[in-house]
């Protein structure tokens, strides 16, 4: 069955318009944060989102975890439609533009207790391990793949700055929550229209108002990656003088400056 909207039309209706509005507001509003730091963080995260998600989605499609409506996509690269790669970029940008409306940096040192870093890494690796176990059953395959995919990134982010993220939890929750709710609705509409379909065999059968739990979890986790990544990035930029005070980092900086001068 041919869906009422193509995947590209879905973007034209649901993802691109809010990005344009939020991007304009981020640039025009005095209270919003839009500077080199924010822009460079967005570019880095877009690159990482595409690079990290591409192998995962191209492993899921051949397994039949999800597929696309007849005539819904323009073309595919590997097993994934062009519009799906575009979604990696647009979701990252949408969530970032929302965060930029109120992004602030707290005055906290980068020198966090080692026990906090270890706890963050172990929590992320625990999620990864749980995903690995769930991959062994057909009904939990999609759920397991999300957790297995998410765990390493969460381990890195939490290992680096779990303490800071907890301090900024209100900002993080607001930045994650609103775009996640919006994308849940958009995803539910897309599934209802037949733009893409989710396998019953590879899901546990629990839904959120008709949206499969796994789909809801994916958008939640992806937005957590974006928000935590940007919050930590601007924190590091704000404290970069502290990095320069660390002997190893200072030596590397001096070598780079000396090499640049010699050149």
Describe the structure.
This protein has helices spanning 7-28, 36-63, 82-99, 114-134, 141-167, 169-193, 213-238, 240-244, 247-262; strands at 66-68, 76-77, 80-81, 196-198, 207-208, 211-212. With 263 residues, it is mainly alpha-helical. The chain has one domain (7-107, 169-262). It has a two-stranded antiparallel ribbon. It has a two-stranded antiparallel ribbon with strand order 2-3. 33% of the residues are buried. The model has no long low-confidence stretch (mean pLDDT 91). This is Lycopene cyclase. Pathway: Carotenoid biosynthesis. It is found in: Membrane.
Major β-sheet profile: 2 strands, antiparallel
* Order of strands in the sheet with most strands: 1-4
The pLDDT mean sits at 91
The coarse overall form would be globular
Work out the count of structural domains.
1
Helix content: over 70%
Oligomer: single chain
Keywords summarizing the entry:
membrane, 263 residues, mainly alpha, intramolecular lyase activity, Lycopene_cyclase_dom, isomerase
In short, what is this structure?
The protein has 263 residues and is mostly helical.
List the helices and strands and how they pair.
Elements: H1 7-28, H2 36-63, E1 66-68, E2 76-77, E3 80-81, H3 82-99, H4 114-134, H5 141-167, H6 169-193, E4 196-198, E5 207-208, E6 211-212, H7 213-238, H8 240-244, H9 247-262
Antiparallel strand pairs: 1-4, 2-3, 5-6
């Amino acid at each position: 069955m041919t869906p009422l909207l193509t995947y590209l039309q879905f973007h034209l209706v649901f993802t691109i318009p809010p990005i344009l509005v939020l991007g304009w507001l981020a640039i025009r509003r005095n209270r919003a944060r839009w500077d080199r730091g924010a822009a460079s963080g967005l570019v880095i995260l877009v690159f990482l989102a595409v690079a990290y998600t591409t192998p995962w989605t191209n492993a899921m499609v051949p397994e039949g975890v999800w597929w696309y409506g007849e005539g819904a996509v323009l073309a595919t690269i590997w097993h994934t439609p062009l519009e799906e790669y575009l979604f990696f970029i647009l979701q990252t940008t949408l969530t970032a533009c929302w965060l930029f409306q109120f992004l602030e940096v707290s005055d906290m040192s980068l020198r966090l207790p080692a026990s906090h870093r270890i706890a963050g890494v172990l929590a992320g690796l625990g999620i990864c391990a749980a995903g690995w176990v769930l991959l062994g059953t057909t009904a939990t395959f999609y759920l397991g793949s999300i957790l297995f995919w998410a765990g390493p990134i969460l381990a890195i982010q939490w290992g680096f700055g779990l303490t800071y993220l907890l301090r900024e939890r209100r900002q993080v929750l607001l930045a994650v929550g609103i775009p996640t709710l919006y994308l849940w609705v958009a995803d539910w509409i897309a599934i209802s229209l037949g733009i893409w379909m989710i396998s019953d065999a590879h899901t546990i059968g629990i839904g959120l108002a008709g949206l499969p739990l796994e789909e809801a979890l994916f958008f939640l986790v992806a937005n957590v990656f974006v928000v935590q990544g940007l919050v930590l990035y601007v924190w590091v930029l704000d404290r970069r003088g502290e990095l320069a005070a660390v002997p190893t980092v200072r030596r590397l900086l001096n070598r780079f400056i000396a090499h640049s001068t010699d050149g």
